[in-house]
Amino acid sequence: MSGQWSTEVQAASACSGEVEPVRWNETVHRHAMIPEDPWWFGGDDIQEYDTMEDGDGEGPKGRSQDQTDASTDGDQRPEEPWMYNPTWPLPALEPLTSGHYMSMEIGNDSVGALRFNLSSDYRTTFCVTLQSIEDGVSTPIQGDVYLLTTSQYRLYEEIYDIAHGSWSFWDGFGEDELDALSDIPPEWRSFSPAGWQTYRDVHQYEKTSEATFSVSMDGPELYSSLFGGAEWQDFYLVVDAWDNTHDGDALAPATNVVADVTVMPTKRTLILPPWTVPLVFFGAMIALIATPFVLNSRYLNAGLGDSDGESMTVPLMEQRAMDAPDEGE
What we know:
The protein is of the alpha+beta class. The chain has eight helices and twelve strands. The radius of gyration is 31 Å and the shape is elongated.
């Protein structure tokens, strides 16, 4: 996965700069979803996942992460079992403070994701390039790129499982119900059984072969539910290679997708407190409301006196007629 196309991506756009080797399961964690999960269907045995507390950067059973990300035989999926059946609880990640470059291969009708712990002290820029590789030649390919929080990713996982029939009691939830999501306004889609949203409802880049975007947070990202306390939120960079429930997304590509991902955190020099945002909008609203009254007052006061403070008399035509001498005089 470290061919010629990889070096070109690292130097592209806003993600150029120094990158450090990825410390898997310490700063980045790999996830995946596949249409036929052996955990549900009783397929192949699941390999034991190594949590790598010693930070050796290896995947399951001592294999390196580069080996687990590498493409396998054409009849096999590129994802390893530990990617879609991880050991719980997931390892806690360190805040992302240095740049990383990584590649991951996603099978057709599948999902690849990278989990990060983003810091509010840094502005994080993501650059993603999607391509297919055949006979050593890379070709741009369209897919979908999303940024989700932990709670949003869990709902996204559920929708993926429902759409692929993993939940037997959802058998009646077919394509008609999934397509009906287009009739629901975006702000209400999270209340729909097929609804899911991206971070801030904007970080969704669909039917594209490349995406570059940045994220800056006011503070730690927390999720508070009605029935529990606050929950820490990690961030998932998702590469979607299936026909999901969004209207404008790309279809399944019918081939494996290689995603080249560069992540560049930049230290923020000025971080304003969150209350400055409503303060600025409140001041703008006051200025907008007061402007008509100020202009009207200045208009009414204009021309009422001269520069010396003396009142001015406007001559009338009747006065001019009275003051004019008679013709006989």
